[in-house]
Amino acid sequence: MYNFTTLPPLSLYIHVPWCVRKCPYCDFNSHKSPDSLPEQDYIDAIIRDLEQEIPFIWGRTVQTIFIGGGTPSLFSAEVYERLFSSLRALLPMSHNAEITLEANPGTVEQQRFADYKAIGINRLSVGVQSFNAQSLTALGRIHDGQQAIKAVETAHKVGFKNLNLDLMFGLPHQTAKTAKEDMETAIALSPSHLSYYQLTIEPNTLFHQQPPTLPDDDPIIDWQIDSQQRMAKAGYRQYEVSAYAKDNQQCRHNINYWQFGDYLGIGAGAHGKVSDAAKQTITRRSKQKQPQAYLSSAGSSDVILTNELIHTKDIGFEFMLNALRLTDGFPTPLFQQHTGLPISHIDKALQQAEQQGLITWNIQRICPTEKGQRYLNSLIKLFLPENE
After folding, report:
1. Are 243 and 318 members of one domain?
2. Binning pLDDT at 50, 70 and 90, where does residue 388 land?
3. How far apart are CA 316 and CA 299, in angstroms?
4. Does residue 278 form part of some domain?
5. Cβ(287)–Cβ(269) below 8 Å
6. CA distances from 280 to 170, 190, 275, 310, 339 (A)
7. Edge-to-edge order in the sheet of strand 330-331
8. Number of C-alpha atoms within 13 angstroms, CB side, residue 283?
9. Do 249 and 317 fall within a single domain?
10. Are residues 335 and 237 in the same domain?
11. In the chain, what percentage of residues exceed pLDDT 70?
12. pTM above 0.85?
């Protein structure tokens, strides 16, 4: 039985499901865009979807908003402005809410970035992935290296101080030289945040059906270490497995995910997780994935694809699955605050992890050790229900 005395922070995730084309490595809910994007109809559907969710979070303040995809930068600033007007009318929003929009270099222009900034979007996340022509072609990206550089320079020019670049490594045809050049170019562009992660082959992707030739693991590890050292020297501190930020520029929205905060999921295929103090429950729900199914059902019960209560036996694993990705761990009281359960609920697993040298913990903080970060999957498995 949960016992919430306070509720976790609340975020809002909005999904835009269309891309110019589907990348062969992508397992997100994205679909090739039609010749004419139904911008207005989709915003109407999002508003209906949100109105239906309001009773579950009534009176709670939204701390962060993240517009992801797909490619949200396919939509104009005008439709987002209309969306934000409805959001402000429907939801209390923090005066300093972090509002992120994902953009791809092949779908942006200077005026569009300026318009996004003008309507209140204060953080951009640009999906660069690589600056190398051969790597970009292998990844199926629609931009080239110069377009990526121009997009970042444009974001700076129009005033985005909070700017993330997504960069991948372990790519087809990548070498130590091109991996180093990618990182050096990214650092030279001076974003406030870097998301740096290895390409993995996911089920239900073209790469899974037709696997590309990837570099061997040993050199990939060397490239990662070299890039981490370059980022550290340039002032980017690693605060999560794949996230690096300059001082006070961590992604607040993602930190809320990693700390088992609450979030509404609005849009085609979006997922949400909401705690309820009155009912003492935690519920996960997801929405219809196919854009047409979402458009026709938003605002009705048919839009709900899944709706599941999280059982208390699963909470230790659910919480630790993401919280232990944070390099500094988390304050020990956060577990009870965000799960409604005492820390004793996971006492056995904590003791096992400590005995194996994977964490340090006390009444103030629980933190993965260097060994725990290296063997993160093994550490997280200790919190599976069957091990409790």
Report:
1. no
2. low
3. 33
4. no
5. yes
6. 44, 45, 7, 11, 10
7. 330-331, 365-368, 359-361
8. 18
9. no
10. no
11. 98
12. yes
